[in-house]
Amino acid sequence: MTTVHRSAPAPIVLAGFVAAVAVVAAVGSLAATRSRSVYEGLNQPPWAPPGWLFGPVWTVLYLLIAVSGWLFWRAGGTRREFAWYAAGLVLNAAWTPLFFAAGAYTSALVEIVVLDLVIVGTALVFRRRSTAAAALQLPYLAWTLFATSLNAAIVVLN
Q: Which backbone phi and psi does 12 adopt, to 5 degrees?
């Protein structure tokens, strides 16, 4: 397995992880310009959170995802192992355009189930080298599982 290049200073690499996650967040925000009105216009289960909650939650989660990747890098993660992390970022970026921009609620549900599995895989792979990196994936997994159940309810109710 090829290890990821480690000659760069740790703060610069951390900034790189933050930047990568910020790109994912930006893709989501660009695709979700009408997300609040779309979300409020859907039939939702009684336990659906208010729309304003998603921004603060995702801000915290994106920071945790970036730090998780950085900790795994510091622990000697390989390129092959980082494929799980990268796949999760790509899937994360894809969900918002599917759900909000395309209105493809069923496709978004299938996609987020795959994302859930990739987050589990990422946490398991990260745990081999850094329990802290793996632990920082768990709030992300918990929220994404909640979002999966919300997505499923929206598919049923709409």
A: -70, -40
